[in-house]
Amino acid sequence: MASTMRTLVIGLGNPILTDDGAGIYAARAVAEALPPDADIDVIEVSCGGLTLMEAMIGYDRVIVLDAFFDFQEPVGTLRLFDAGDLASTLNTASTHDADLPTALRVGRALGASLPPDEAIQIVGITARDVLTFGETPHPQIVAAIPAATQVVFQLLAAQEVRS
Questions:
Q1: pLDDT at 82
Q2: What is the tens place of the pLDDT at every residue in 5-24?
C-alpha cells in the first residue's frame, strides 16, 4: 500500500497590510476550489521564519503563497521558485526572527521532520505596497489571485503524476 504524501498549502502574509495579504487571499481561493475530500491542508500564517518553518513540520510537500516585493517586475507578476532558491527576506534584518532558509536549517539540525528545499515551492505575487494599512489589495494583486490559484493546482497535479 502506497503512503499518502502529506501536502500543505500556506497563505503567508497579513491581510490588513494592503498587498501583503496576497498570499492569504490566494490560499483562501485554493481552499474554496479544493474538493471536500482533498487530502491537502490549507492554512494562513502571518509570520515568516521560525513560525513558518514550524508549520511545515510533518509534511512531505509545502506550497507557500506570498507577496513578493520586487521593483523589477510589474505588480501582479507571478514568480515560482523553491526554498533552495529563496533569497534573503525582509525578516533577515529582524533581530526577532530568522529568514526561512535559516529557519529550515535550524529545524533540520534539531531533527524536525521537514520537506527538502525542492519540495517547498513558493508562488510569489509581485507587490509594491506591503506596509500600508488597508484590507483591500491593489487591483493588479486581486487580478493575479486566480492565476496564482491555478499555479497551485498545476503543482498539485504534477505531484500526483509523479506519485
A1: 87
A2: 899 999 999 999 889 999 99
Predicted TM-score (pTM) of the model is: 0.89
pLDDT at 91: 39
What's the CA gap between 127 and 28, in Å, rounded? 18
For residues 131 and 85, the answer to whether their CB atoms sit within 8 Å is no
Which residue from 125, 120, 118 is spatially nearest to 148, judged by alpha carbons?
125
How many domains does the chain contain in total? 1
Please give the grid coordinates belonging to residue 141. 494583486
**Mean pLDDT across 41-63:** 94
State the residue range of the domain holding 58.
7-162
CATH of the domain at 30: 3.40.50.1450
Quick check: is 36 in a domain? yes
Which of 2, 6, 5, 89 lies closest to 51, judged by CA?
Answer: 89
Q: CA angle 98-127-60, nearest 5°?
A: 50
The pLDDT tens digits of the residues spanning 116-138 come to 999 999 999 999 888 889 889 99
Q: Which helix (H) or strand (E) holds 10?
A: strand 7-12
User: Among candidates 83, 66, 82, 84, which has minimal Cα distance to 126?
Assistant: 66
